[in-house]
Amino acid sequence: MSSVDIVNVHKSFGDNEILKGIDLQVRxxxxxxxxxxxxxxxxxxxRCVNGLVMPDKGHVSVGGNLIGRKVHNGKLHDLSGKExxxxxxxxxxxxxxxxxxxHLDVRDNLMxxxxxxxxxxxxxxxxxxxxxxxxxxxxxRAAAYPSQLSGGxxxxxxxxxxxxxxxxxxxxxxxxxxxxxxxxxxxxDTMRSLAQxxxxxxxxxxxxxxxxxxxxxxxxxxxxxIVEDTTPxxxxxxxxxxxxxxxxxxx
Amino acid sequence: xxxxxxxxATGLERPAEVPDxxxxxxxxxxxxxxxxxxxxxxxxxxxxxxNPQLEWGVVGQFLFDGQILEGLGQTLLLSVVSMVVASAIxxxxxxFRLSANPVLRTLGSLYVWVFRSVPALIQxxxxxxxxxxxxxxxxxxxxxxxxxxxxxxNDVLSPFAASIVALSIANGxxxxxxxxxxxxxxxxxxxxxxxxxxxxxxxxxxKVILPQALRVMIPPAGNQFITLLKETSxxxxxxxxxxxxxxxxxxxxxxxxxxxxxxxxxWYLAVTSAATLGQNIVERxxxxxxxxxxxxxxxxxxxxxxxxSL
Lengths: 251, 310
Ligand SMILES: Nc1ncnc2c1ncn2[C@@H]1O[C@H](COP(=O)(O)OP(=O)(O)O)[C@@H](O)[C@H]1O
Ligand SMILES: [Mg+2]
Prior knowledge:
The complex is a heterodimer.
Chain A: E1 2-13, E2 16-27, E3 31-35, H1 42-49, E4 57-62, E5 65-66, E6 69-72, E7 75-78, H2 81-88, E8 91-94, H3 106-116, H4 122-135, H5 151-163, E9 169-173, H6 181-196, E10 200-204, H7 208-214, E11 217-222, E12 225-230, H8 232-237, H9 242-250
Parallel strand pairs in A: 3-10, 3-11, 8-9, 9-10
Antiparallel strand pairs in A: 1-2, 1-4, 4-5, 6-7, 11-12
Helix pairs in contact in A: 3-4, 3-5, 4-5, 5-6
Chain B: H1 2-5, H2 28-50, H3 56-63, H4 66-98, H5 102-117, H6 120-128, E1 136-140, E2 147-152, H7 153-156, H8 159-184, H9 188-197, H10 201-231, H11 243-254, H12 257-309
Helix pairs in contact in B: 3-12, 4-5, 4-8, 4-11, 5-8, 6-8, 8-10, 9-10, 10-12, 11-12
The structure holds adenosine-5'-diphosphate and magnesium ion.
Magnesium ion binds at residues 42-43, 173-174 of chain A.
């Protein structure tokens, strides 16, 4: 059973068709890197996976559960806000701009989600937060506010915040694109260790070296379609399409 | 010293001798203005103090009069209750205006449009005279004649209650706009991050969006409260029981109109000044929310070397 199943997903914003029929499966424990030029629909596709964006046609299921919708009388109906929120608990997402909560310190950034959703007692969650901050190498920054951290540190906090929810799946949307070059490595290292722990991951990235080393599969998108879906080895060394070759020449 | 800094000025024109001392600026214009203004102030004060039509003794006599103090209490009560109700209304309609639902959005815009456009005085007169066109108020099904409860309008809606209704609804429109722009000031990424964590809409608003929006909302909301404090005086037109209503009551029989207006004005001055002071303190406290982070980082920076040496 594949962990993520994307079937014939279409999405338009106004008259712009951004996703033009996407089919993609990601197995449990697999790391898939999603590559493609800017504007090709990678972020939109990623947001369809946790229901932040709802497809106009087609569907996404994660762990066998339809995301954001239910079938009734042969048609798809939207879930209630509460039901849709519950589905997102176990799908972590990391953003290009980190999106930490600026009014809360690091520890409270980590605690807010699990506290609101009553996933455990305070002491237990505090322990967990401490453990995860240690894991991302920020054990001593629990009391800092996001504005006091470097970009790389903020992104590692964002990863720890997502891990607090014990996700089965992690989505990364260009997690290192907003970082100064010297800070990219620390975030990629954190992601690499997450992959080694067996996390299922879909990673939108422009870090080709990371994709080559860590990805089990590379999916290349252009103009709202999947153009190549193959191993990193084949994609980087002998891309099949002219689009992919052009993309790699520029990268 | 000069020669050691500057290269020797060969063939360069320079004034023969330049003193080091810069003359102190003398603001003759300012002094002249102060003299003129002081003369005007003195003259006005003198004519006020010596005007035989104006008895300052009466002002002093009524400043702490029981009725006036009761009116002052009502003015404060009216302001605080109306502000609280207006904030609740503003929160609801602020969210309506940002809703994805076009019906709610339109409702929000209509509310703001109508109640910001119609002068507060007219709204107060309207609610105060509701009995003229709706003699009874109740809950029932219109057109059927069936009603669950019903009572004479004037029993339900005392002038004081009508004042609260009018001021709450009128100020709710302004607060809806303040709250809306506060909510809009919060970055889109905060909504995404909250949703991605599995928070419901309301959890996200309460724990993530509103705390950040509040910082932006506090200064204009404070101004709105101060405006409201003064606006409560309008309810004197329906004898709403505020300080001006009481002042007018008293001058109605002792005919000391100006003296009692001065009594009311002194109290408005005092109350508004206190509110302004309060607003400044609150603003400093909330902007310290951002400053707090800086202070904490200094504390941390001070601690770090110790930790490193351990
Ligand atoms: N919420 C939205 N409303 C309107 N247009 C959008 C929205 N989200 C994305 N788009 C548009 O969709 C296109 C693809 O966006 P995106 O999925 O972010 O691409 P990528 O992540 O590959 O750069 C862009 O042109 C963008 O402007
Ligand atoms: Mg993108």
